[in-house]
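hey so i finally got around to running both of the ones u sent me last week. sorry it took forever, my laptop kept dying halfway thru and i had to restart like 3 times lol. anyway pasting them below in the order u listed, first the sequence line then the structure token line for each. didnt double check formatting much so if smth looks off just lmk and ill redo it

first one:
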Amino acid sequence: MPTGDYTVTIPTSATDMPTISAARSADYLIIEAGAELTISNGGSLSVSNNVTLEASSDATPSGLLYIPGTGTLSVSGTSTMNRFTPITTDWHLLSAPISTPAITDYTGYYVNGYDETIVDWENYNSSSTISVMQGVSTFFSSSQTVSYSGAFNTGSQSISVTNSSTGDDSYGWNLVGNPYPSAIDWEAA
């Protein structure tokens, strides 16, 4: 395992994706699109500079970082996750994997948030605010890479949901997003 003086790259071409189960360090960490790193229970990774999860325009998913249970990641620099979204005529449902999401992450896109109390989409602008786990609907006319920079969300996350009229099935719909820089295994529950 490298020490804190090295830039560590987890390549797309890796056939055996690494798992960290003890205390480790690196200078920079780059996880290429389609690659993944797991920091398991009892494992820790301290990165003295930046962490980057790369994206690819060939439909390969962004680099993934899994921190289940008690694993920890500390980053002294910037954490960045790039997410490629191909051109389509559809809206894309997105959520920020960072602890301080901002509407400016979506500058140049049409962005909507769902308002359960009025049963409709609300157009967001540069003064709108978003929160952790809040899903947004985005639309753009060409393929894009959205970059999220900040502290990655880890541990338990929660968001308040509403149901303004329990007797009416039109109400109660909330757009809840994935708050993590990795996929969620829906079958794990």
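and the second one:
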Amino acid sequence: GRPGWPFGEALRASTVYDVLLGDAGVRFVENVRLVVEDVPGDVSSLAPDPSQPSTWYAASGPSIFRSGDDADGWELLSTFPGERVERVGCCPGAPGVVVSSSRVGDGEASRVRVSTDHGESWRVVAETDFHVEDVAVALDGTPVVFAASDRGLFRLSLAPGSVPESLIVDGSDAAIPCYAVAVVSGPGAPLQVAVAAQELRGVYVSFQSGRSG
């Protein structure tokens, strides 16, 4: 008989048929079904891991999943009851660092979490009573998170006990509501941060690591 499957190889019904029919005592096989308990359903966010080939993270409902074989298979990493994970992202240059943001209950409150071990464990780094629309993480000496929210753009160090720093995107409005944030990093250069403002107020860009002004 077949000795088994290499780690990461997809398991298909046709392979199961072949194995079963290869037994001299088996005349026929019907209705082979492969059933798994936890797989991504409605995916709200998908992120590649820049430090591991073929590795992806997916947010689906209250859960975060990881694939190590370009989505042939998925494993459940964590589930946060009463929440909906809306964003997940990785940090280029910092292997293992993954961030997520989730909506808590049916209100506007959000939680931002970080993992430093490729999603195996998570800790809360920020809780807000307003909605965090998007998160991005980048290396600025140490990993930092930028959170675009209904109350403006925030920068958060991942050091324990850190407090989110409100960034002034537009001098005329210290809390301009934001939809999305993206970060580009280059060796030895300040982070470039772009944020999309709500209410058709345009896109703002910082070439100085998102500093106010």
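quick thing i noticed on the 2nd:
The first strand starts at residue 43 and ends at 48.
anyway thats it, ttyl
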